[in-house]
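To illustrate the input format used throughout this study, we show a single complete record. The first block contains the structure-token representation of the backbone; no residue identities are included at this stage. The design step must infer an amino acid for every position from geometry alone.
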């Protein structure tokens, strides 16, 4: 369990599979944030989180990872997986 972590950011959560797993593993007082460029993916993620009763533990926003809407040094950990693609 990630008990010592208060806030985690996932960049590019897509349909929310990792957000769900992170939300299940953090302490009750911690918060998970997700930023994704696709509003459609975020909607799917929210549906999954709501279905599992985890929506209150996750904040998500639509945005570009190159210009995120967060201040510096806000998160204890950052996670990213299957997000970058070669151009």
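Output of the design step:
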């Amino acid at each position: 369990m990630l008990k010592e972590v208060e806030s985690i950011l996932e960049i590019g959560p897509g349909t929310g599979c990792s957000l769900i797993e992170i939300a299940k593993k953090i302490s009750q007082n911690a918060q998970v944030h997700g930023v994704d460029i696709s509003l459609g993916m975020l909607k799917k993620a929210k549906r999954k989180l709501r279905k599992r009763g985890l929506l209150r533990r996750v904040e998500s926003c639509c945005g570009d990872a190159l210009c995120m809407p967060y201040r510096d040094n806000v998160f204890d950990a950052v996670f990213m997986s299957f997000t970058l693609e070669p151009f």
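Structural context for interpreting the output: The chain has a mean pLDDT of 89. The domain at 7-80 is CATH 3.40.50.150 (Rossmann fold).
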